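Incident log, structure service

09:12 report received: a user says their structure output differs between two submissions of the same chain.
09:20 pulled the input from the user's history:
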Amino acid sequence: MIMLKEPLLKLLGRIYESDAMIALRFGRYDLAIKTDGKGRAKLLFLGSKDQHTGKIKGTRFARRLIENEKGEVLKDHWDKKGKATAQL
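09:34 re-ran on a clean worker, output below:
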């Protein structure tokens, strides 16, 4: 079972280009990260990239990020959603 641990969570905590799909390599895994309007990771596809199609086949994770009116983060965690494929 794939678990999101501290080194990967640190990578996912960075700010990226807003509303984009970003491809990265992390250890033996290929990643596809979908960002929100503020550049925060909201979807993660973690698996291996198919050399012919460029799709990442693996596991999908969704981020639950809840803020209050001041923009302070109240809740921030990742949920495993199951098997999925991401097109880059």
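09:41 both user submissions now match this output. Likely a transient worker issue. Closing.
09:42 reviewer note: The beta strands are 21-26, 29-35, 41-49, 55-67, 73-87. The chain has a mean pLDDT of 92.
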